[in-house]
Amino acid sequence: MDDKTQLILNFINESSSNMPYVLKDKLIRDGKELKYRFEFEEIKNSIDEFIEGNELNRFIVLPGIRGVGKTTLLYQAYYYLLNEKHILPDQIIYLSCDDLNNIVDCNIREIVDIYLNNQFNTQLRLLDKEIFLLIDESQYDKNWSMSGKIIYDRSEKIFMVFTGSSALNLEYNADAARRMFKRVVTPLNYNEHLKLKYDYSNINLGNSLVSLILNGEEQNAIKYENEMNRDLINNIKYNFNDWDEYLKYGGFPILARKINFRRLSTNIVDMIEKVVNTDMVAIKNFTFENQTNSNRILRYLALQNAGDLSQNNLAKYLKTSQANVKNILDILEKTHLIFSIEAYGTLSKRMKKTKKYYFATSSIRNALSENSGNTINDIKQYGGILLENHVASILFNFTQRGNDCFTLYYDANKKRNVDFILQRDFKNPVPIEVGRGRKDKKQITHAINSYGADYGIIISDTTTNIEKHNNIIYVPPKTFSFL
Questions:
Q1: Main-chain dihedrals φ then ψ at residue 474, nearest 5 degrees
Q2: Among 128, 284, 413, 426, which residue carries the largest CB count within 10 Å?
Q3: Helix, strand or coil for residue 235?
């Protein structure tokens, strides 16, 4: 046995022997199990189907921004396999490619081959027992997607879950893409936040908000909003500043257990720096200079009004080319730190108009603003900017969660423009206006008439509950965050 093989086997064996202690440390808080993100149900159902003989969804890929709970999902899957499905420990392989990469170059396929040969004296094509492969930080194997494809093709006995930072989106094999089930792990909406923090969930409100957006049907949303408000009033653990805290610091599970907000912001900034200095550095030709440019672009965005960005001005500010700025922005999008939306209109109009950029969560914008020296002194104005970013991210994540028939745009009209336009296939668009405090209806009425919309939505504190007046639906920000 050569040294590399021995190092890999030692790493796997140590990981396996330590797992009971790791699970206890990572999944138990104050004597109670951590709550599940909703994605865990998808993993659990796929595991159950695989054990029952359905091999369809046996290659699951879960990319997502750092800190949203992907590693915890793997630990919970391991716990479920071990304690509820009674799978033997030697049939479960958990690996962090990040940790292994500190010892040897991480090659997932090679690791599986070595393990099967030494543990079961077999190989992929001859495997006769079920193996569960849980791989974290998969991006440290630059050929992770090809490794997954080969394992998938050579054995129907292996169930795989690959997680990792959004660098997973930067490069993957087209053939592998046809075999994998990819589910982006998005930042937490408010319903998911409440589930983790207070063990409270109102999935019906989220579903009814979908109907409200799709069809302008508000009755069920009103019903479940009343139920939600009543439940939270009667929940003695619920902090009535919780939604405001979520707007500034939320989207990540860590808020469910930390109340030191300064430390939370520091954690978010640290996460951003790791994405730039680790994930983006792994990309070919990404220089140290562009690491610096990336950090400056993110802070520049955080100090602008929501969505405002001139690539020409940014190139002059950074003393680099517009092409380089565009390249950096494209890569930042692939890491899921930011996202962009195009102008509503014809293809020609969308190509001529600049994109608008938003942060993945309002908490990222807030953390960078605090870290860089927020130049906006008006609390109401700053709250409005955070809210616009928050609504943009909620809508964008909605379009990413299997709702790809929707496209989110911004309104490029110069007069009385609304913030967003949501388009579903060839149906009439839905204009959406956002604001902190009370909002009048001039902008939304103008957009409804201009775009031939059946109705429009105002997300603001104009009303304390969902209300519909003629063809305008008013939705409070906290309620909308359940989408």
A1: -100, 130
A2: 413
A3: coil
Q: What span, in angstroms and rounded, lies between the C-alpha atoms of 283 and 217?
A: 46
- Structure tokens that stand for 229 in this block: 């408000």
User: Pairing state of beta strands 430-434 and 420-424?
Assistant: antiparallel
54 CB-near residues (< 8 Å, 6+ apart): none
Q: The dihedral of CA 198, 200, 203, 209: what is its sign?
A: negative
pLDDT in tens, 332-368: 998 889 999 999 987 877 888 889 999 999 999 999 9
Query: What is the arrangement of strands in the sheet containing 420-424, beginning at the earlier edge strand?
Result: 356-359, 338-343, 406-410, 420-424, 430-434, 456-459, 472-475, 467-469
- Can you tell me the distance from the alpha carbon of 35 to that of 86, in angstroms, rounded to the nearest whole number? 21
Ramachandran sector of residue 69 (left: φ over 0; alpha: ψ -120 to 50; beta: rest): left
Helix or strand or coil: residue 341?
strand
Residue with tokens 């967003």: 420
**CA dist., res. 306 & res. 89, Å (int):** 50
**Which SS3 state, helix, strand or coil, does residue 238 take?**
coil
Q: Considering the domain 3-182 in this protein, what is its CATH number?
A: 3.40.50.300
| Cβ partners under 8 Å of residue 235, min gap 6 | 198, 200
* Closest C-alpha among 465, 427, 368 to residue 215: 427
C-alpha–C-alpha distance, residues 55 and 159, integer Å: 8
- CA dist 189 → 42, 166, 261, 396 (Å): 17, 19, 19, 12
How confident is the model over 224-241, as pLDDT tens digits?
Answer: 999 999 999 999 899 999
Q: In angstroms, rounded to a whole number, what is the distance separating the alpha carbons of residues 168 and 275?
A: 12
